[in-house]
C-alpha cells in the first residue's frame, strides 16, 4: 500500500504525502513544502529593474518620484557605500553608509550581488536587500554603476536594464557644478567616468531602455510607460 501512495522528493528521498507511514517527521516535510512554494512565488514576480546613469543624469530624482507614486508595488534596493554622506542624505534610505573594512568583509563573505570602486569609494548591492524586497512581493529597483551592470549580467538575477543620460556632456557638467558638492578634481573624475558610461550606455544591446533626461516630465513618462506592464501585473497579483 505504501508503494502506491503519491511520493514527494525531499533532499533526494521520496516520502509519502500522507502524515502516517512517513519515515521522517511531517514537520520537516511541511517546512520543505513551504520553502518550495515560497521559491515558486518569487519566480512569478516581475524581473528586477537595474537603473544606471552618470552622476548628475537625474536618475535618483526619477526613482524617488517613481517610489513616491507606486510605493505599494515598487521598492528601492538601498545600496551600500564607503563614501561619507552628503548633506541631507539619510543612512539606510539614500545609502547604507559603512566603513571600508565592513564593506570588504561583507564582499569576502559573498554577501553582494555586485560591487564597484569609484573615486576611492566602494558601492554595492547586497543580496539580502534584493531578497527582502522580493519576499515582500514588490518590484525591486536597483541603482547601479556601469561596472555593476556588467556584473549583474553575469548573475542569475536577470534584471531589465535602464540607462538614464543627459542630452550632452556639457549639460551633465553644468548639473554637477550646480550641486557645489564636488572638488574640481572629483568633478573631472566624474566627467571622465561619464564619458565611458555614455559609450557603454549607448551601445546597442546593453540596455532595454535609454531615457534622455532633458525634460523631467517627459523622462518620467518614458520610465512609467516602460514599467507599466510590471506594475499592472503586481496590482492584479495583490488584489
Please describe what this structure looks like.
The protein contains eight helices and eleven strands. It is an alpha/beta fold and 239 residues long. The strands form three sheets. The protein has a five-stranded parallel β-sheet, sandwiched between helices. It has a four-stranded mixed β-sheet with strand order 6-5-8-7. The longest helix has 23 residues, at 216-238. It is globular and about 50 Å long.
Q: What is the oligomeric state here?
A: single chain
The major sheet is characterized as:
5 strands, parallel
Order of helices and strands: EEHEHEEEHEEHEHEHHEH
Label the structural class. alpha/beta
Radius of gyration: 22 Å
Secondary-structure map:
Layout: E1 7-10, E2 13-16, H1 26-43, E3 49-52, H2 59-69, E4 74-77, E5 80-81, E6 96-97, H3 100-108, E7 112-118, E8 121-126, H4 127-135, E9 139-143, H5 146-152, E10 160-165, H6 169-179, H7 184-201, E11 209-212, H8 216-238
Parallel strand pairs: 3-9, 3-10, 4-9, 5-6, 10-11
Antiparallel strand pairs: 1-2, 5-8, 7-8
Helix pairs in contact: 6-7
Short description:
The protein is α/β, with parallel strands linked by helices. The chain has helices at residues 26-43, 59-69, 100-108, 127-135, 146-152, 169-179, 184-201, 216-238, and strands at 7-10, 13-16, 49-52, 74-77, 80-81, 96-97, 112-118, 121-126, 139-143, 160-165, 209-212.
Amino acid at each position: 500500500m505504501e508503494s502506491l501512495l503519491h511520493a514527494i522528493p525531499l533532499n533526494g528521498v521520496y516520502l509519502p504525502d500522507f502524515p502516517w507511514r512517513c519515515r521522517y517527521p511531517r514537520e520537516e516535510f511541511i517546512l520543505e513544502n513551504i520553502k518550495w512554494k515560497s521559491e515558486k512565488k518569487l519566480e512569478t514576480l516581475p524581473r528586477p529593474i537595474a537603473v544606471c546613469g552618470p552622476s548628475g543624469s537625474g536618475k535618483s530624482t526619477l526613482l524617488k518620484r517613481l517610489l513616491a507614486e507606486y510605493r505599494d508595488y515598487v521598492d528601492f534596493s538601498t545600496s551600500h557605500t564607503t563614501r561619507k554622506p552628503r548633506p541631507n542624505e539619510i543612512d539606510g534610505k539614500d545609502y547604507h553608509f559603512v566603513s571600508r573594512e565592513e564593506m570588504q568583509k561583507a564582499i569576502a563573505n559573498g554577501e553582494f550581488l555586485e560591487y564597484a570602486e569609484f573615486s576611492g569609494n566602494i558601492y554595492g548591492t547586497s543580496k539580502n536587500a534584493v531578497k527582502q524586497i522580493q519576499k515582500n512581493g514588490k518590484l525591486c529597483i536597483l541603482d547601479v554603476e556601469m561596472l555593476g551592470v556588467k556584473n549583474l549580467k553575469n548573475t542569475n538575477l536577470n534584471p531589465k536594464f535602464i540607462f538614464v543620460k543627459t542630452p550632452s556632456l556639457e549639460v551633465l557638467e553644468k548639473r554637477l557644478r550646480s550641486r557645489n558638492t564636488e572638488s574640481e578634481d572629483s568633478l573631472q573624475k566624474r566627467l571622465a567616468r561619464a564619458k565611458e558610461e555614455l559609450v557603454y550606455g549607448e551601445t546597442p544591446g546593453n540596455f532595454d531602455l535609454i531615457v534622455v533626461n532633458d525634460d523631467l516630465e517627459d523622462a518620467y513618462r518614458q520610465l512609467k510607460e516602460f514599467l507599466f506592464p510590471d506594475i499592472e501585473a503586481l496590482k492584479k497579483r495583490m488584489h
